[in-house]
Amino acid sequence: AVQFFAPKILTGYSILLTAGPTREAIDPVRYISNHSSGKMGFAIAKAAADMGANVSLVSGPVNLATPAGVNRIDVTSTKDMLDAVMAEVDNHSIFIGCAAVADYRVAKVADEKIKKSSSDMQLALVRNPDILATVASHTPRPFTIGFAAETQDVERYAKDKLVRKNLDMIAANDVSSSELGFNADSNALKVIWAKGQQDLPATDKHTLAKQLLELIAEQIHILKD
Ligand code: CTP
Ligand code: CA
């Protein structure tokens, strides 16, 4: 059945999200990025707005329409995404890091297009800052949810990220299959928090977004009581 009116369980909450890939320039015409479509993050932004939340969405380069009522901030590089997030974080009580952030950037972006030569080429890469971990160690700290994109040992790696990044919750997805996760319309999530976990079986990203937000709302209400 089509549900026209979502229960407004997030009224009074302000949610900050990241979505999509980040893109790191190599030279004026080339970049490093990944296959993230932004669909999961945009579905969460839409569902959160439908549930009554005030939503800000910091998005990398994607081909998606802005959901109604969502405040969208477009960025390209990881550094720009971090700056946009930290400028907004104090205005929000919940942070959800859905972006597939480029883990490395090029050490020195070339001013001019790099010409090929007869020999091989090497790029020096440096680690990017971790946006999610930066938010989780910020004061005041929002209720912080991360994603974990894994191709193996999903639960073990996700639990490790939950603890290592000091998160309240992590939503893990297996990105080894092309039907689910990255750049697909459907996904399945294993959601883990300190005191429990729940599997959200494969479905479309809009249904999954609602289910994830219901779990988040439940945990926030428990913390408040
Ligand atoms: N993340 C982030 N900033 C980064 C890297 C990741 O905010 N520089 C966030 C992602 O948005 C996601 C979570 O961290 O919510 C986990 O991303 P993932 O790529 O699965 O984990 P990493 O910590 O980067 O570890 P690895 O890629 O080595 O598995
Ligand atoms: Ca990563």
Automatic annotation (TrEMBL):
<feature type="binding site">
    <location>
        <position position="161"/>
    </location>
    <ligand>
        <name>CTP</name>
    </ligand>
</feature>
<keyword id="KW-0210">Decarboxylase</keyword>
<feature type="domain" description="DNA/pantothenate metabolism flavoprotein C-terminal">
    <location>
        <begin position="10"/>
        <end position="218"/>
    </location>
</feature>
<dbReference type="GO" id="GO:0004632">
    <property type="term" value="F:phosphopantothenate--cysteine ligase activity"/>
</dbReference>
<comment type="similarity">
    <text>In the N-terminal section; belongs to the HFCD (homo-oligomeric flavin containing Cys decarboxylase) superfamily.</text>
</comment>
<keyword id="KW-0460">Magnesium</keyword>
<comment type="pathway">
    <text>Cofactor biosynthesis; coenzyme A biosynthesis; CoA from (R)-pantothenate: step 2/5.</text>
</comment>
<keyword id="KW-0436">Ligase</keyword>
<feature type="binding site">
    <location>
        <position position="103"/>
    </location>
    <ligand>
        <name>CTP</name>
    </ligand>
</feature>
<keyword id="KW-0456">Lyase</keyword>
<feature type="region of interest" description="Phosphopantothenate--cysteine ligase">
    <location>
        <begin position="15"/>
        <end position="225"/>
    </location>
</feature>
<comment type="function">
    <text>Catalyzes two sequential steps in the biosynthesis of coenzyme A. In the first step cysteine is conjugated to 4'-phosphopantothenate to form 4-phosphopantothenoylcysteine. In the second step the latter compound is decarboxylated to form 4'-phosphopantotheine.</text>
</comment>
<feature type="binding site">
    <location>
        <position position="147"/>
    </location>
    <ligand>
        <name>CTP</name>
    </ligand>
</feature>
<comment type="function">
    <text>Catalyzes two steps in the biosynthesis of coenzyme A. In the first step cysteine is conjugated to 4'-phosphopantothenate to form 4-phosphopantothenoylcysteine, in the latter compound is decarboxylated to form 4'-phosphopantotheine.</text>
</comment>
<keyword id="KW-0511">Multifunctional enzyme</keyword>
<feature type="binding site">
    <location>
        <position position="165"/>
    </location>
    <ligand>
        <name>CTP</name>
    </ligand>
</feature>
<feature type="binding site">
    <location>
        <position position="113"/>
    </location>
    <ligand>
        <name>CTP</name>
    </ligand>
</feature>
<feature type="binding site">
    <location>
        <begin position="129"/>
        <end position="132"/>
    </location>
    <ligand>
        <name>CTP</name>
    </ligand>
</feature>
<comment type="pathway">
    <text>Cofactor biosynthesis; coenzyme A biosynthesis; CoA from (R)-pantothenate: step 3/5.</text>
</comment>
<comment type="similarity">
    <text>In the C-terminal section; belongs to the PPC synthetase family.</text>
</comment>
<keyword id="KW-0285">Flavoprotein</keyword>
<keyword id="KW-0288">FMN</keyword>
<feature type="binding site">
    <location>
        <begin position="97"/>
        <end position="99"/>
    </location>
    <ligand>
        <name>CTP</name>
    </ligand>
</feature>
<keyword id="KW-0479">Metal-binding</keyword>
<protein>
    <recommendedName>
        <fullName>Coenzyme A biosynthesis bifunctional protein CoaBC</fullName>
        <ecNumber>4.1.1.36</ecNumber>
        <ecNumber>6.3.2.5</ecNumber>
    </recommendedName>
</protein>
<dbReference type="GO" id="GO:0004633">
    <property type="term" value="F:phosphopantothenoylcysteine decarboxylase activity"/>
</dbReference>
